[in-house]
Specification:
Blueprint lengths: L1 H4 L2 H28 L11 H26 L2 H55 L4
Helix pairs in contact: 2-3, 2-4, 3-4
């Protein structure tokens, strides 16, 4: 278990980064398409990019948050992360149909922020107790 928990800080940082990348992508893509319509033909303009980010965020978050929750016994870490994952998943696969474009963006921001908050709390708890990971 020690080798797995040794990877938690960098996993938290990577998961925060991918969550925020997802949020930035969701917010800025419509603006960028107005200035550079050709961007829509790249991977960044396709819905598959959002799905790819989701497939990176979910496993990374599950591993890092589970390890953090086990190490720190702080359930808030897992609750924030789980809430964020569920919201991101629902926004990615059902948001556009049920919430519209703006609703999907808002849900994505809420989910990404919750995941990032869970990882930030996990990282902070680790640094506070000066554990070996």
């Amino acid at each position: 278990m020690k080798t797995l928990t040794a990877n938690t800080p960098w996993m938290d940082k990577l998961a925060i980064s991918t969550s925020m990348l997802c949020a930035v992508h969701c917010l800025t893509l419509p603006l960028l398409l107005g200035f550079a319509p050709a961007l829509g033909t790249t991977i960044f303009g396709q819905e598959s990019f959002h799905t790819l980010l989701l497939w990176l965020v979910i496993p990374l978050s599950l591993v890092a948050l589970t390890l953090g929750c086990r190490a720190h016994k702080n359930v808030a870490v897992m609750v924030l992360g789980a809430f964020g994952i569920v919201v991101l998943f629902l926004a990615a696969f059902f948001g556009h149909d049920y919430l519209g474009e703006v609703g999907e963006r808002i849900a994505t921001l809420i989910g990404a922020s919750a995941i990032a908050a869970g990882h930030l709390r996990n990282y902070t708890l680790c640094r506070r107790v000066k554990c070996d990971h």
